[in-house]
Amino acid sequence: MNGAADMGGMHGFGPVVPEPNEPVFHAEWEGHSFALNMVTGVAKLWNLDAFRFKRESIPPAEYLNLSYYGLWTMTLELMMLEYGVATPAEIAAGHAIAPIKKAPHAVTATQCANMVRCGSPYNRQAPAPALFETGDKVRAKNMHPQTHTRLPRYARGHVGEVMRIVGCHVFPDSNASNLGEDPQWLYTVRFDGRELWGADTDPTVRVCIEAWEPYLEPL
Amino acid sequence: MTHDHEHHHEHGSDLSEMQLRTRALETILLEKGYIEPAAIDVLIETYEKKIGPRNGAQVVAKAWVDPRFRQWLFEDGTAAIGSLGFGGRSGNHLVALENTPSVHNMVVCTLCSCYPWAVLGLPPLWYKSAPYRSRTVADPRGVLADFGVTLPKDTEIRVWDSTAELRYLVVPTRPAGTEGWSEEKLADLVTRDSMIGTGLAKSPGDLK
């Protein structure tokens, strides 16, 4: 979707301002916001792509005004409502309301430590051979789905070159809508800065993205 | 207890509101038995204290002194980095990017905040901010200038937008005057920003 999250190439946000000696979390609640989102991932209440889709679906004016972890908390709240983990009355009350439907299992510290150590690989068995080879010229499709996609707007319609076949990975566009993992070939595609941004662009700039096969068309 | 559901969205003013909202969600998840309290604590402690840029600095320092490791790192980043004990969450698919005198790599996630937690920990605020996400793919030299970094005008700037589950680690060039240094000492030269590509490794003089 063409939401506020897809920021590449936008103007007007000002300079990047690094913070010296920055803490990992700027307030205690930020650590909790972070951890709750990790824990609900371990609980498999929803998949990561669905979470990202919900986050980028927050209306642009609201998205841009939320702090980073504020955005995470808002997304978690929306997901808990959508997936029936909490009711609006419970959110308003700040606690569970009887009759409480208990979860079958509570995520433990050990499970979380295992998740940190093991992660969750996204490569999958390939259902078919890869369509493109390294060195192929490809065009990123001009597409504007209302649903989740990881093809940034700035790349759409532009021609690049396949630098590497990464492997066959979970396709977020499908997974985010709970339509299954639908694994697709993933490629590193390199674009010349002038192709993306115009002739007066610094000629030394190259931009690489990871693009799933359905994002690309042969030239 | 009910709390205010009107949104206050001026920058920085959502702190107390977000504290309440976050606590409400946590309380509901605990009361319904979705999570144990210790699960929250272990995650906060891990990313506040245990996993950070020192991991990545060890990888870079090893690549500077060990040619076989260096070759492995660029061929199969996940396996090479895994051999040092780093991987897992946001580190299942790691790609090391080699800076050379003619190519400088920079990493961004224009869509949000993807970052190689396993080797760098959680990202700094600027990495997740709109200025960095919007400008890096279009004007990387301008972003480098914000960090006080100027590169020769013919250096290729290669920007990597983290659109999939691959996570990138930039391997900066080894500073001059470090011949014979131990990996441990070299690792002190490797800054977080040099592994994102918004900085360079320190020179020996910077340590004094």
Question: What does it look like?
Answer:
The complex is a heterodimer of chains A (219) and B (208). By secondary structure, chain A is of the alpha+beta class. Chain A has helices at 28-42, 48-56, 60-65, 68-82, 88-93, 109-118, 172-175, 193-197, and strands spanning 137-140, 159-169, 184-192, 205-212, 216-218. The longest helix of chain A has 15 residues, at 28-42. The mean pLDDT of chain A is 97. Chain B folds into two domains: 15-49, no CATH class; 52-207, Nitrile hydratase alpha /Thiocyanate hydrolase gamma (Nitrile Hydratase, Chain A). Helices cover 43% and strands 11% of the residues of chain B. Chain B contains eleven helices and four strands. In chain B, strands 1-4 form a two-stranded parallel sheet. In chain B, helix 3 (53-65) crosses helix 4 (67-75). Mean pLDDT of chain B is 93; it is low at 1-14. Chains A and B meet through helix 1, helix 2, helix 3, helix 4 and helix 5 of A and helix 1, helix 2, helix 7, helix 8 and helix 9 of B.
